Each structure stands twice: as structure tokens, then as C-alpha cells.
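Students often ask why inverse folding is considered easier than folding. One informal answer: many sequences map to the same fold, so there is more than one right answer. In these notes we will look at a single instance of the problem. The structure comes first.
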């Protein structure tokens, strides 16, 4: 925090008392945080979203890398190391899709979708093999 004049933000807990000159609210266009602190925000809902789930693997080549595979401009599949849990690596899986296409994805055979994932990234089979149903994913 600097010595400027004007409004400041504070974080006060039983363990710390910190002051800030600037706070960045970066939790998405649908965030309710700006309104809660009296900020006017103009935003539009983004038409694309991502399916997301986490899976644990015993061995993964990209131990510390976010990796993505693309099929043209309309398919994006990513795996990102998220945590180490004992002897396994937890990976976050992301699959980009238009929000309006979510119902169609839910109606699609999970096996067909898994085949599409493996077509884009055959080496991701340790993750894809753990997918058993649509309910594992959030949008």
C-alpha cells in the first residue's frame, strides 16, 4: 500500500490487518461483487463457457504446465495441474463450448465426447478414462 490520499480497501481478520490502494475484482462478467461495494459495472454475458472437472492422475508429463489442444477455432481442450494430493497430481479439465450448446452436450453420448477428447489429445487417456458421466462437469 502506498501513501496516497483517498479511498482505501482493508482486509482485517484476527490474524492480519492489511490496507490496499487498489483492489482488482476479476471474477467474471456475472460477478455481484462490484455492485455490493457500490461500483457501477456495464457488462455483457459472454456467449462461451467451459465445462470443468478435476481428476487425479499418478503420472503426468506436464507436471507444472497448463496445456491445451485445439480443433480449429471451435474446440478447445485443456488440462491444468491444480494440486498435488499425496502421490497423485490433480488436473483441472476444461472443454470450451457455447453456453447455448450445453443442453446438446448433455444429450450427447459421453462415450462419443470422450472419443473426441482423445482424438484431440491421445495422451490424455489417463484423465479421459475417469470420465463416466455428464454430472462430473460444471459449466
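Output (designed amino acids):
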Amino acid at each position: 500500500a502506498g501513501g496516497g490520499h483517498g479511498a482505501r480497501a482493508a482486509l482485517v481478520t484476527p490474524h492480519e490487518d492489511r490496507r490496499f490502494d487498489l483492489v482488482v475484482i476479476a471474477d467474471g462478467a456475472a460477478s455481484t461483487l462490484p455492485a455490493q461495494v457500490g461500483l457501477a459495472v456495464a457488462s455483457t454475458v459472454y456467449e462461451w463457457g467451459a465445462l470443468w472437472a478435476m481428476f487425479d492422475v499418478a503420472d503426468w508429463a506436464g507436471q507444472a504446465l497448463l496445456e491445451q489442444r485445439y480443433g480449429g477455432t471451435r474446440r478447445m481442450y485443456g488440462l491444468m495441474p491444480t494440486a498435488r494430493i499425496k502421490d497423485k497430481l490433480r488436473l483441472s479439465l476444461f472443454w470450451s463450448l457455447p453456453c447455448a450448446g450445453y443442453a446438446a452436450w448433455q444429450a450427447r453420448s459421453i462415450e462419443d465426447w470422450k472419443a473426441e477428447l482423445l482424438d484431440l489429445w491421445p495422451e490424455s487417456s489417463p484423465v479421459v478414462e475417469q470420465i463416466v458421466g455428464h454430472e462430473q462437469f460444471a459449466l
